[in-house]
Design brief:
The complex is a heterodimer of chains A (474) and B (288). Chain A has 474 residues and is of the alpha/beta class. Chain A is built from 17 helices and 16 strands. In chain A, strand 10 and strand 11 form a beta hairpin. In chain A, helix 5 crosses helix 7 and helix 8 runs parallel beside helix 17. The N terminus of chain A is likely disordered. Chain B has 288 residues and is α/β, with parallel strands linked by helices. Chain B has two domains: 103 residues, Elongation Factor Tu (Ef-tu), domain 3 (Beta Barrel); 110 residues, Nucleotide-binding domain of ferredoxin-NADP reductase (FNR) module (Rossmann fold). In chain B, helix 5 runs parallel beside helix 6. The longest helix of chain B is centred in the last third of the chain and has 16 residues. Chain B is globular, with a radius of gyration of 19 Å. The C terminus of chain B is likely disordered. The chains are: A alpha/beta (474), B alpha/beta (288). Chains A and B meet through strand 5 and helix 12 of A and helix 1, strand 7, strand 14, helix 8 and helix 9 of B.
């Protein structure tokens, strides 16, 4: 059916509550790595899409960093034109199956949904996932041939920013090559986000779809070590995009952090997700979990770590956080899932030292209770230690999920590429032009640790800017 | 895939591979390492570069069969491929212009000492090398070391070759003989590097060692390789792997190196069972 006859405004929306997401039983899933959220079936999806008001001015779209035409794709879902809905999403979003799973829609598109003012917003994210999964069920994308424009762009890092930038440029006819340091593409999507939130097969299929567009992915190349930015230009690339992420882990600098059994969240998650330590000894990479695990921090990475710890066999897995639940930076959904699975929360609790035995193994985490004082620079109430409230949590493993900062390997080896005092790449405009001409950057490498969708939005803007500059240079 | 061009058995458990890796070969400096993975389900292990030929596009590595991965790697033949071969990683060894430099290599640590000797020699720096092993048949790269050293001294624990005893005894004799020494660089087992540090410390003789901790990514991302140097926590993969021997907390490094000893034993036992008892999947007939 022709698209112009299916604009959402032509049908009255159906009033019904937002369709819940079918999930794996909380008890069972806490012990396996299978995906927690099972996804909508066709009936749930169509029913949910029917709730869309088809607003003349779709404010939801303004909340989407990759500019998905939301009412248009929802209308197509409602009309059961799933292929059309997928094509609509895919035309602006290179990684819809990823976004449909890990985007914080509640603070992006769904928060803007008019329905949300009186009832619950349309489940835009779940529907995005539905159409992507539906399309994947039909096999790999078969994009129409693209006419090459004769220009080459190198992309450093195959995380969400790099993949998005690559997809947008490839669609415009650029010859795009992605250089990845690890042995598999996806960046944080494969080393960081666990299988139970984002199956690695999904990431592989999204990358496969990009390769079908002509994007080349070369793994095992550490730009800054194996090859430099200047050498890439010498190889004939017309522009570069740096999507190198924020890969350096932070520690607390408390005593005992080098004891055996203390991990950075990066290491804990990389061993688990990228190296599949949960399959040891069938897979070669081991991990130590023990009976009781404390994860320090309360962001999404902390939630991922603590939920992995449970699935790796810990009898007790706990979050240790110095503020209260209200200040936790993790997505609400992740927090709820963690609670359902039986994760323990020690709030208003700050670690002061990791205790160990004579052999150098962790035996406990000494903590102090906190109370909240006046708001600090972040606007959150400042935690203040309560004197004499020290106590020790008996744990075998401690995971530090305190945030990450950008890796300096590229900036250190690229003359003229400036970083700020946090190690983040300095950009000259909102398209992500760095202090080096013809080098753009986006994602965590610029912003410090943030979300997948913001990185993708940055990658998209950079792609538009790269295209503009290279076309003008003709 | 990175193709193995040449393989040489240096001892029954020490194997040298010359691997096609043109980008790595072009950049490799003495002291740097690569991360290697040999199977889709395999682990990532760091291996110090033992030589590199930018023209030929090859990088030489030496493995000692200790864990499961190194044993499995020992079975690879010329023409076989290595799945992942990433580098060069870490900071290069500081190549001083002023000699003489004493290079101490213990066990398969002689392999990464070799390119340092070669580079120093090329700069015209006088190189005195001390290499050691438990026994003569475990001594590796003696001829190669002789070719890039002004003097080569050998020690074996059992006295089958050279000095009977440890490399540290030879080093101490050298220092006590009043020889002019600018710098000592030692690479080998942790106990040997610690002993070298202990030997030179009373003389305030600058000594560097190359640590070999557990790593995952090798680019500063995971922190598995952290160690304490001069009271500060460092990442061996990006801050090292070469550090001041007198500053390294060897006790801690040793402990951290054994973090997965139980798992390693389990993996080795499983591997041995699959490869030594009767016909096995790899077609070896169980003979290797």
């Amino acid at each position: 059916m022709p698209d112009n006859e299916t604009t959402p405004a032509k049908r009255l929306p159906v009033k019904r509550p937002r369709a819940g997401m079918p999930t794996q039983d909380a008890k069972a899933r806490g012990r396996n790595f299978n995906e927690v959220a099972l996804g909508y079936g066709e009936e749930l999806a169509v029913g949910e899409a029917e709730r869309c008001l088809g607003c003349k001015k779709p404010v939801c779209q303004e909340g989407c960093p990759v500019e998905v035409r939301i009412p248009e794709f929802l209308g197509k879902v409602r009309d059961r034109d799933f292929r059309g809905a997928y094509e609509t999403v895919k035309s602006t979003n290179s990684l819809p199956a990823v976004c449909g799973r890990v985007c914080p829609q509640e603070t992006q598109c769904e928060i803007k949904c008019v329905l949300g003012k009186k009832a619950e917003p349309v489940a835009i994210g779940r529907l995005e996932r539905f159409v992507s999964d539906w399309a994947m069920g039909q096999g790999q994308d078969k994009p129409a041939p693209i006419k090459p424009n004769g220009k080459k762009v190198a992309i450093v890092g195959s995380g969400p920013a790099g993949l998005t930038c690559a997809g947008d440029l490839a669609k415009k006819g650029y010859k795009v090559t992605i250089f990845e340091a690890l042995h598999a593409p996806g960046g944080v999507l494969i080393y960081g986000i666990p299988e139970f939130r984002l199956p690695k097969q999904i990431v592989a299929e999204e990358v496969g779809n990009l390769e079908a567009l002509g994007v080349e992915v070369i793994c095992d190349v550490v730009v800054g070590r194996t090859i430099t930015v200047d050498e890439l230009f010498q190889q004939g690339y017309d522009a570069l995009f740096l999507g190198t992420g924020a890969g350096l882990p932070m520690f607390m600098n408390i005593p005992g952090e080098t004891l055996n059994g203390v991990y950075s969240a990066n290491e804990f998650l990389t061993r688990t997700n990228l190296m599949k330590a949960y399959l040891f000894p069938e897979w070669d990479t081991p991990i130590k979990v023990g009976e009781s695990v404390a994860v320090i921090g309360a962001g999404n990475v902390a939630m991922d770590s603590v939920r992995c710890a449970l699935r790796l066999g810990a009898k007790e897995a706990a979050i240790v956080y110095r503020r209260s639940e209200a200040e936790m930076p993790a997505r609400h959904e992740e927090l709820e899932h963690a609670k359902e699975e039986g994760i323990v929360f020690h709030t208003l609790t700050a670690p002061v030292r990791v205790r160990g035995n004579a052999d150098g193994w962790v035996t406990g985490l000494e903590c102090i209770k906190m109370e909240l004082g006046e708001p600090d620079d972040s606007g959150r109430r400042r935690p203040i230690p309560i004197k004499g409230s020290e106590f020790t949590l008996n744990v075998d493993t401690v995971v530090m999920a305190l945030g990450t900062s950008p890796n300096p390997l590229v900036s250190q080896t690229t003359p003229g590429l400036d970083v700020d005092k946090h190690g983040c790449l300095v950009v000259r405009d909102e398209d992500g032009l760095t202090t080096r001409d013809l080098v753009w950057a986006a994602g965590d490498a610029v912003t410090g640790a943030a979300t997948v969708i913001l990185a993708m939005g940055g990658g998209k803007k950079a792609a538009t800017a790269i295209d503009k500059v290279l076309q003008e240079a003709k | 895939m990175f193709i193995i061009r040449k393989k040489r058995d240096l001892t029954p458990v020490t194997k040298l591979f010359v691997v096609d890796a043109p980008l790595v070969a072009k950049k490799a400096q003495p002291g740097q390492f690569v991360i290697v993975r040999i199977a889709p389900s395999g682990e990532r292990i760091p291996l110090t570069i033992a030589d590199a030929d930018a023209k030929a596009g090859t990088v030489t590595i030496v493995i000692q069969e200790v864990g499961k991965t190194s044993r499995q790697m020992g079975l690879l033949k010329e023409g076989d491929g290595i799945l992942d071969f990433v580098g060069p990683l870490g900071r290069p060894a500081p190549l001083t212009d002023k000699g003489p430099v004493v290079l101490v290599g213990g066990g398969f640590g002689v392999a990464p000492i070799y390119p340092i000797a070669k580079a120093l020699r090329a700069k015209g720096v006088k190189v005195i090398s001390i290499i050691g092993a438990r026994s003569q048949d475990l001594l590796i790269l003696e001829a190669e070391m002789a070719s890039v050293s002004d003097e080569l001294l050998v020690a074996t624990d059992d006295g089958t070759k050279g000095h009977k005893g440890f490399v540290t005894e030879v080093l101490k004799q050298l220092i006590d003989s009043g020889r002019d020494i600018e710098l000592v660089i030692a690479i080998g087992p942790m106990v040997m590097m610690r002993a070298v540090g202990k030997t030179t410390e009373p003389y305030k003789l600058k000594t560097l060692v190359s640590v070999d901790p557990i790593m995952v990514d090798g680019t500063g991302m995971c922190g598995a390789c952290r160690l304490t140097v001069g009271g500060k926590v460092k990442f061996a993969c990006v801050d090292g792997p070469i550090f001041d021997a007198h500053q390294v907390d060897f006790d801690e490094a040793n402990r951290r190196g054994k973090m997965y000893a139980t798992e390693q034993k389990l993996a080795v036992d499983r591997f041995e069972k699959a490869h030594h008892s009767g016909p096995c999947a790899c077609g070896c007939g169980g003979g290797h």
